Amino acid sequence: MGEVVYTARVTIERQNPPIRRATLHASGEQVLFGVPDEVGVHYGVDPDTIDLHAGTLDYIAAAAGG
User: Fold this and answer.
1) Which structural domain range is residue 16 located in?
2) Are the C-beta atoms of 9 and 26 separated by less than 8 Å?
3) 31 in helix, strand or coil?
4) Is the pTM of this model over 0.90?
5) Which residues of 24-62 are buried (b: 16+ CB within 10 A; e: fewer)?
6) Is residue 3 part of a domain?
7) Cα–Cα distance between 47 and 32 in angstroms, integer?
8) What does residue 65 show for φ and ψ, rounded to 5 degrees?
9) For residues 55 and 65, what is the distance between their CA atoms, to the nearest angstrom?
């Protein structure tokens, strides 16, 4: 196996579940992760009680498309 050339460093903080704040150490950017409407409803999240944010799958799809 080859040597490791890069390690992604990310810190995840749980906010008001299911909201999470990720800090990307490479840039210092912070990103909010949550659940989109349909996913939140599936898991029993009342959309009137939290702000809905893009979920991890949304970010994966965006990264793969770029």
Assistant:
1) 10-65
2) yes
3) strand
4) no
5) eeeeeeeeebbbeeeebeeeebeeeebebbebeeeeeee
6) no
7) 16
8) -75, -20
9) 16
Whether 2 maps to a domain, the answer reads no
Task: Report residue 14 as tokens.
Answer: 């749980």
Q: Is 18 inside a domain boundary? A: yes
Residue the block writes with tokens 């810190």: 11
* CA-to-CA separations, 22 to 13, 15, 41, 43, 51, in angstroms, rounded: 6, 10, 23, 21, 16
Q: Tens digit of pLDDT for each residue in 6-62? A: 999 999 999 888 889 999 999 999 999 988 888 888 888 887 887 878 998 898 999
Number of domains in the chain: 1
